[in-house]
Structure formats: structure tokens, C-alpha cells
Amino acid sequence: xxxxxxxxxxxxxxAFPALLLGGISVGCAPILVRLSEVGPSATAFWRVSLALLPxxxxxxxxxxQTDATATxxxxxxxxxxxxxxxxxxxxxxxxxxxxxxxxVANATLxxxxxxxxxxxxxxxxxxxxxxxxxxxxxxxxxVGVVLLVSSGWVQGKGALSGxxxxxxxxxxxxxxxxxxxxxxxxxxxxxxxFASSASAxxxxxxxxxxxxxxxxxxxxxxxxxxxxxxIVQVGGQGLVTFAIxxxxxxxxxxxxxxxxxxxxxxxxACLKNICQPCRSLAAWR
Length: 285
Description:
Blueprint lengths: L2 H4 L8 H12 L2 H7 L4 H10 L2 H10 L13 H27 L2 H8 L2 H13 L5 H23 L5 H24 L5 H23 L7 H26 L21 H6 L5 H7 L2
């Protein structure tokens, strides 16, 4: 943890509750993506672009009063706070596509293998040690995910292409969390969220325009993308971004794991992707 963030330890007590609440909010994403009237890329664009106004206002109001006081000034510093959004934009497009091509349960389980890739890249790039208990737990998780996903193929609830895209999204999401953790060492969650959402907007815009159906056609369609922006992006992703600077060293692998606990409930009930008992229990990890 950097000296800048250490300067206000009063925020540390809120890290885990923020992570938990953020995970619950992010857990609303699959049902909202499936309800969206526009395509996967356009849905990703509206999620991050409609979040810019509240994030910008919050960053301006909280300037100098949050958990880190540094302000990006140089090009390198602006790149530091913007790079997470590049990963996020690509990951959102990929994961949204996976949600349309395979079952919600499969897409959710596979994308939440992110901690495995985060730990692996941390070891390869920064030589961060991986504890044996994490390795053994990871092995069990991977075996369980393979069994659950393959059972979905047998039941006709999964598709190999969608599962492959979700797995790729997990790799990209690992890059998001690693770059996010680096940015949060110096800069506040408000600044990082605004800058990363802006860069994610630029990344998703050309892909969204290429889809054809860009603008929601009804008030319900607009309500869906606004909910994605304000509940999932501003609320959920913002709380996780705040928490990541205060968690112990192993925990940057885990923020992304807080959301799947809640996801088998609402998408399964509303979209008839009802998880079997064993699949639901596996997601409650």
C-alpha cells in the first residue's frame, strides 16, 4: 500500500463491507445485459458512458477528501489511471457476447476464474509468491468449473464458443484488476473510476456503432442501460475500486470473486437458466 493511500487509514475499516456490497451490485449485471435491447458491445458502451456524469461529479466533489489525494498531471499518470478502462472495455464486450452465446451460469463461472489468472500473471511478471493453500484451492476450483461447464454442454445449456469467450474475458479481467491495483496505490477511487470509465467508453464506442442496434428503442431499454451504468458501474465497480487499495496483498485476486455468489439467483429465475443445486452451490464460493 502506498504512502499516499496510507495517509488516511480511517477508510480501511470500510474496505470489506464495500467489497461485499460492490459484489452484490455487480451481480446484477448478467440479468441486465440479457434484458438490454441493444447488442453486447452497445450495452457495454452505455454502461460505461452513462456512468461518466455521476462519476465526474463525484470526483469533483470529493477532490482532496477521499482515500488518496494525488491528482494525475503528467501523461504517464493519466495513462496509469486510464489503462484499467482499456482492459475493462474489452472484457465487457467479450463477457456480454459470452452471455448471449452460452448460459448465464457457464459465462459467470468461467469469467470468475479471473483470480487464477491474476495470481499466475502476478507470479510471472512480478514474482509474487503463490501460497500452497491457494494453489490447492485453485486446482479444486478449476476441476469443479470444468465439471459444471461440461455438464452444461450435455444438457444443451452451454456452447463451446461462448464458454471460450468467457474464459478469454477472465484473462482480460485479470489485466484489469492488476492495472487497477497499481493505479489505486496513488490515486483515489473517484479519479480512477472516472478515467477508466472514460477510456472504456472510447474502446467500446466503435464496436457498439458497428453492431447496428445502438440506441435503446423504449423507456424500458433505457432504464436497463441506466441501471447497468449507475448500479453496476458506478455503485458496484466503484465500491470494488475503493476497496482494492485497502485489502491485504492476496486480496487483489478476490474482488472479482464476490459477485458470482449472487448471480445464480436472479438470472436463473428470470431467464430460465435455472441452475441445478450443485451448480448453485459451486457458485457460492
